[in-house]
Amino acid sequence: MSNTHSRRNFLKLSLLAGGGLLIGVGGLSNCSMPTSTDDLDFQRFNAYIEMSPNGIVKIYSPNPEIGQGIKTAMPMIVAEELDVPWEKVQVAQAPLSNDFNRQVAGGSQSIRQNFPALRTAGATVKLMLLTAAAKNWDVEVETLEASQGVISSKSGKKIKYEELIHDAVKLPVPENAPLKKVEEFTLIGTAVNNVDIDPIITGKPLFGVDYKEKGMKYAAVARPPFGASLKSVDDTEAKGVKGVEQVIQFNHKVAVIASSTWAAFKGKSKLKIEWDNLQDDENTDLFDQKMHETLRKGNLEEKITHGNFAEAKTKADKVIEKTYEAPFLPHNTMEPMNFFADVTPQKIRLIGPTQVPKASANVVAKLLDRNVEDITVEMTRMGGGFGRRLSTDYAEDAAMVSHLAKAPIKLMYTREDDMAVGQYRPKVKYKITAAVKNNELIGYQLQEVIVNNKGMNKGIAKFFPFGTVDHYSATSSNIPADVTTLWWRAPITNFLGFATESFMDELAITLQKDPIALRMELLEKAKGQKVPYSPERMQKTIQLVKEKSNWGNAPSGVYQGFACYYSHNSYVAEVCDLEMIDGKPVAKRFYAGVDCGIVINTSGAKSQIEGAILDGIGHAMYGNLELKDGIAQSKNFDQYKLIRMMDTPTIETYFVDSNEAPTGLGEPGMPPAGAAYANAYVKATGKRMLQQPFFG
């Protein structure tokens, strides 16, 4: 990785009215800099860094914080290159302008996209401070050293950064500030506590559900089953609930507006609604029938074709074929959906937990026929996202209810609302076929059938084992439906990783090869091929977890399962140690080897991998949501099982030492987790898990 970054006008500086220094990161040549932090404009800059006269360095970042740790990791990057004490670094959620460029949290991309810019910003400002000190002392800048916010000369002179602000702002911005070598890092690669940990554990208001302001009303909305419409509503009893002020119908929905959350929820429960056009084909069993029929006919859209799989199949000594099935899943964020909207003739204010503020503003502008310039969006911290808050449906409802009620509205979901309204992980089936000749894999076919979703794209279709066989085919088909689906943690790959890695173990059994040895052998064949992944990096990751898990040398009664996967530009290999206790399978320990490039915060990084593994095995074992006539049959946690503390294994996470730029971390640990468990289960019982949930 290069340790210099050049871009003319990449940074701009200005002197703040209070005497501090403001740095705009990612500016273009025609950008003007504000002189107040009240005027930050993220249409023109990616982020801002403020250096105060008291030595405090504050980063204003536009990226939403959903628990992925960027509010801690991003300032660590700047502090590393700037060489300031960590205790003097702060980070704030940026005030929002009317253009929300780059303000998205999703796809495990926040650190990956901002890493070069933030490093360069810190290094450039440090160089300017060094240059200012060199001019003051009439020495060469190369003779000076910067450390912990202090510049020192060989003669023993010392000066603090904040004393050089006025001199540094007068200097031209250098084009090539040297970056540290990876081995010179002192902060990056260490464990740092989440900057919000104290307010989180003490219950201070941070999240969308905490937001309130004087005069606002609360709203709860009844929504139709998928595909249905509102026929009639009797709101007499609802209006009789103390605190209920209005009942409003819109877009086949019914909103109850009240003076408190409880009154709104109680009022909604008293509505007597008759739905029309209930869809008896929005049914889990019927979806299964359609999907199996689609796979049987084989009329699917081509995604990738390499060689001739049909011909390889006819020449094969053996043909292995398995179908893997996954249900709809809700996101089940800890914090249910909620949003604040205040729609007035002059302006619209939107406040709440969203991963997509720009999209929220745009859809509300279109919904209410308003100029997007009249809309502001403020982001709160989110109590989980997992893709659910990439949708704008709840922001739209809040804005519409505020518009119709002519009052500021706090829209609140119950857990039942959250699970019933949709935006699920799509139901999907994968049929995988392998052609084997002379005990070697010569052909591989991946067929996908998915409900109301585009499914895998061509990039995902080229993930491992693409590039390892001469004849490869990937096809997909979408089953249209009214049920709404959305991105769900590690979109598509969350179950595709389970299917392909479970099948890889089937192949190893057939070929009578060690599961890890087979993958290493196939990855060797992928070297030099045009594939989106690095075979060498995956091999190194596999080798790491093989050594750490003592693969192949487990004590008696311990059954080991292995799986690996590449997604979000990262490589993860996992081993599950499973034991049979009282006749039941128990995952006692997981080992994870991870190559995500340079690890910024080891504490946050381990938390992300551990959370992904628990999410992966928990949903694989228990997660299931069925539909009948367009209505979700599980509506709360008494009907929808999540993994419990007693089910959780000990997890050991190890990172590959790397000089590569950071890549995704919030999602890549999930796809191989269920497969590692299932592959261990086969060794323990001889039974193959083909359908999730395992223990429905």
Describe what you observe in this structure.
This protein has 696 residues and is of the alpha+beta class. It has 3 domains: 4-197, Aldehyde Oxidoreductase, domain 4 (2-Layer Sandwich), CATH 3.30.365; 208-278 and 337-412, Aldehyde Oxidoreductase, domain 4; 285-328 and 425-685, Aldehyde Oxidoreductase, domain 4, CATH 3.30.365. 29% of the residues lie in helices and 26% in strands. It is built from 17 helices and 30 strands. Strands 13-14-11-21-18-19-20 form a 7-stranded mixed sheet, sandwiched between helices. It has a 5-stranded mixed sheet with strand order 2-3-4-5-6, with helices on one face. A 5-stranded mixed sheet has the order 16-24-23-22-17, with helices on both faces. Strand 4 and strand 5 form a beta hairpin. The longest helix has 28 residues, at 110-137. It starts with a strand and ends in an 11-residue tail after the last helix. Residues 1-9, 27-31, 33-45 and 95-103 have low confidence and may be disordered. It comes from Flammeovirga aprica JL-4. InterPro entries: Ald_Oxase/Xan_DH_a/b, Ald_Oxase/Xan_DH_a/b_sf, AldOxase/xan_DH_MoCoBD1, AldOxase/xan_DH_MoCoBD2, AldOxase/xan_DH_Mopterin-bd_sf, N-heterocyclic_Hydroxylase, OxRdtase_Mopterin-bd_su_IorB, TAT_signal. This is Xanthine dehydrogenase family protein molybdopterin-binding subunit. Residues 202-279 form the Aldehyde oxidase/xanthine dehydrogenase a/b hammerhead domain. One of its GO terms (molecular function) is oxidoreductase activity.
